[in-house]
Amino acid sequence: MKDNKCFDVIIIGGGPAGIAAGLTLNSRNVSTVIVEANQDINKKLGECIPPNAYPLFQKMGLETLLTNEKHHLYYGNKSAWGNDLFQEKIFLFEKHNKGILLNRDFFENQMRDVSIQNQMNWLIGYTLHTIEKEGTITKVVLKSKANTMTLFCNYIIDATGRKASVCRKIGIEKKELDQLTSLNFKYKIKKPIPFFVYTASFENGWIYVSPSEESSITVMIFTDLDLIPSKDEEKNFILDTINNSQLAQEVFQSTLADEDIYDLKTRVANTTYLDKPYGENWVAIGDAAYSFDPLSSYGITSALAAGYYGGHALANTILKEEQALDVYHYIMENAFNNYKIQLQEQYTLENRWINSIFWKRRV
Ligand SMILES: Cc1cc2nc3c(=O)[nH]c(=O)nc-3n(C[C@H](O)[C@H](O)[C@H](O)COP(=O)(O)OP(=O)(O)OC[C@H]3O[C@@H](n4cnc5c(N)ncnc54)[C@H](O)[C@@H]3O)c2cc1C
């Protein structure tokens, strides 16, 4: 790509939100480029797409991505929450009766492929360096390991995920509702487990387990940042938490073994939001605008929806429809407020440890 090129919109971040916005703007003949820092698809967390997300994928023409055999169907949730017994929620009799457990790296590649088939412009390996307003035009300086590139645009989209890099560069801070953090890992299994999503609460958080490949499962332990143990203590914390939970019997069917834990990582997973997800020359979408507690399994769907509605709102703004971004804000804020109510209701169902630090902060 040539230096000093001018686009209607520059999208920083090529995750689900950025690509969804790119596809939408492209379909409206708005000139766009997606700038993505990572050359390779980086191992992102988040894989669970609940059945009620299916209509959005259909609306965006992305439903065929979900039927690829690299993804797995799952048929319900099993949850020990509020008491020691597992409650089952089977999707069989619901309108959309299957959820999807994504192979996340493959999904990110599928999304990139769709955008390339739609002739979208990408600039891969570049990170946002500076943003400067020059009259009505915005100057964006990007850096790769070896190069600096300057581009110009009318609008810049922040699709950088939880980092919200564009917002930070222009001095807009996200608000945080909590400090939820995940300790996640893969666990080797000898026998495949049924295709359900399992959750169980414990004294200072909750645990998520889902089948992934035949020989391993995905496990995430969620607690608050100040309750995450030091690196030396992580494995003991994991063994202690899982072996004392209902999941030990229901899923693992034996005590957890230290040597079968691999790919151990810590990730921020808290709820955050912007007071207003747009300004004069910018719009924030996906996790950069609102990020969700993974208990909701809402992050990917919401990122796609924000890309879709935010993209249309921006295309309408370019066509001089003055209220278009207010409508985008209204839709996203309403969804976020509903999410907060449902999240609070779900946490309130657990009252076995009302004096523990984690639950006291939520109930
Ligand atoms: C532990 C955990 C579990 C989760 N589980 C689920 C789940 O089960 N279901 C679900 O739906 N969601 C889940 N999520 C949330 C989900 O992964 C996110 O909501 C989703 O990835 C948001 O998409 P996005 O496009 O907004 O951001 P991202 O997917 O984070 O994409 C942002 C992109 O921007 C790029 N980027 C960042 N900064 C720059 C920069 N300065 N310059 C250029 N590029 C940049 C990054 O490389 C990245 O590719 C989970 C999240 C966590 C942390």
Mean pLDDT figure: 95
Number of strands: 20
Q: What is the alpha-carbon Rg in Å?
A: 21 Å
What is the string of SSEs from the N terminus onward?
EHEEHHEEEEHEEEEHEEEEEHHEEEEHHH
Overall 3D shape = globular
- The CATH superfamily of the largest domain turns out to be FAD/NAD(P)-binding domain
CATH architecture of the largest domain: 3-Layer(bba) Sandwich
The separation of the N and C termini measures 52 Å
Please give the CATH class of the largest domain.
Answer: Alpha Beta
Largest sheet: 7 strands, mixed
- Tell me the domain tally: 2
CATH topology (fold) name of the largest domain: FAD/NAD(P)-binding domain
What ranges have pLDDT less than 50 throughout 5 or more consecutive residues?
none
The hetero molecules present are: flavin-adenine dinucleotide
Strand content: 25-35%
Tally of helical segments: 10
Structural class: alpha+beta
Describe the structure.
The chain has 363 residues and is an alpha+beta fold. The protein has 2 domains: 6-46 and 103-176 and 272-346, FAD/NAD(P)-binding domain; 71-100 and 179-268, D-Amino Acid Oxidase, Chain A, domain 2, CATH 3.30.9.100. It has 10 helices and 20 strands. The chain has helices at residues 16-27, 54-59, 63-66, 104-117, 165-169, 234-243, 247-252, 299-318, 324-348, 357-360, and strands at 6-12, 32-36, 48-49, 72-74, 76-80, 87-90, 99-101, 121-124, 127-134, 137-143, 148-158, 175-176, 180-188, 197-202, 205-211, 216-224, 261-268, 272-273, 282-284, 290-291. The strands form 4 sheets. Strands 1, 2, 8, 9, 10, 11 and 19 form a 7-stranded mixed sheet that branches. The longest helix is centred in the last third of the chain and has 25 residues, at 324-348. The mean pLDDT is 95. Residues 12-18, 35-38, 44-48, 127-128, 159-161, 163, 165, 182, 184, 220, 267, 269, 286-288, 294, 297-301, 303 line the site of flavin-adenine dinucleotide.
